[in-house]
Amino acid sequence: MTGPANFSSDNVTGAAPEILEALLRANAGPQTAYGEDEASRRIESRLAEVFETEVGVVPVATGTAANSLALSVACPPYGVVYCHERAHINVDECGAPEFYSGGGKLVALPGEGAKITPETLEGVIGGAGIVHHAQPAAVSISQVSEVGAVFQPAEIAALAEVARRHGLAFHMDGARFANALVSLGVSPAEMTWKAGVDLVSFGATKNGAFAAEAVLLFGRMRDKLEELRYRRKRGGHLFSKGRLLSVQLEAYLAEELWLRNARHANAMAKRLSEGLAALPGAALLQPVEANMIFARLPAPVVEGLRAEGNRFYDWPFESPNEVRLITAFCTTEAEVDGFLAAARRLAGAEAAA
To answer: Is the whole model's pTM more than 0.85, yes or no?
Structure first.
């Protein structure tokens, strides 16, 4: 038996034991402050190994900081960032990207699966060199998208080609980077700079870190590293005890913890989604490609699950009783199976009525 499950977000979890242990080890004794410590130097080299190229690394504590600071060096105050209308930077960042860029404009685009397409992007880019218009500056995609879709490397490369042709920086919000990576079965390089990505918000918090993300700069954007460091300080995101960010990232990447965590979260989403899809009157609203599930469930099932203490979000697309459920690195089979057993019982009670 297990208690109620909380599938409202992968932010509701604690940190992975391996990362907590790394924090405890780093906590012992004094070390140089403001990211000048040994762990911070090591994580730069480690990420270069992981991504198979030289990379600029700026650790921060939150995804909002990573996205907003990354875009601040890609978009001037008079610039435009093109993104999907459901993108986190457009819907859930409280105007932080606009704030950190000093007034940059987000142009929100439609697209199935919360993905923008090369054709849609090509159709809206304009105004370059015209003083009366905000100037095209950057493109941003979410990997995984806001409705759980994963961009294929070919899709990323096609968008990058449009961005490159128009002289735009290409940013990836990788809050669920590892979940997308293991879903695709490709290398970090193939999902990013080899496909034309210039900047990545490399997320770790949702996948087992306590609070750790990093802005990664590839290729020509590495010239922006010094500027980004100043912007991080000016924006209040330079930790004095910077080692406590870096050691989280170091432990996250050690012995493939990040990949194991993501594989587990994705596997639990598959198990949960298959069980929900089998319920009478239920339907999956989006293909389950990572660790996010969007489903329509019968009203008595939704109400009954919540009455029994289970947690998940309403996430309306077109009709009532549409919900979002997210599994995490520490979700157990018992939690999934207990939730599904309750859902089947409630669905059976509805059918009997």
So the answer is: yes
Distance CA 152, CA 155 (A): 5
Encode pLDDT of 215-232 as tens digits: 999 999 999 999 999 999
Give me the architecture of the 17-256 domain, per CATH: 3-Layer(aba) Sandwich (3.40)
- Span 61-78, average pLDDT: 98
Local structure of 311: helix, strand or coil: strand
Residue-level pLDDT at 350? 61
CB under 8 Å to 116, separation ≥6 — which residues? 82, 83, 84, 109, 139, 141, 159
In whole angstroms, what is the distance from residue 253 CA to residue 43 CA? 9
Are 70 and 171 contacting, i.e. CB atoms less than 8 angstroms apart?
Answer: yes
Architecture of domain 257-352: Alpha-Beta Complex (3.90)
The 3-state DSSP class for residue 298 equals coil
For residue 123, what pLDDT band results from cuts at 50, 70 and 90? very high
Between CA 184 and CA 153 the distance in angstroms is: 9
Alpha helices in the chain, H assignment, sequence order? 17-26, 38-51, 63-74, 88-91, 96-100, 118-124, 153-165, 177-184, 188-191, 225-234, 243-253, 257-277, 299-307, 333-352
Beta bridge partners of 136: 80
DSSP state of 317: S
Average pLDDT, stretch 175-200? 98
For residues 204 and 59, what is the distance between their CA atoms, to the nearest angstrom? Answer: 11
249-296 pLDDT per residue, tens = 999 999 999 999 999 999 999 999 999 999 999 999 999 999 999 999
Asked if residue 330 lies in contact with residue 13, where contact means CB atoms within 8 angstroms, the answer is yes
β-bridge mates for residue 173, sequence order: 142, 201
List the chain domain ranges: 17-256, 257-352
Residues pairing with 109 in the sheet: 84
**C-alpha distances in Å from residue 87, one per residue of 28, 90, 138, 140, 172:** 40, 5, 14, 9, 11
Residue corresponding to tokens 């989006």: 286
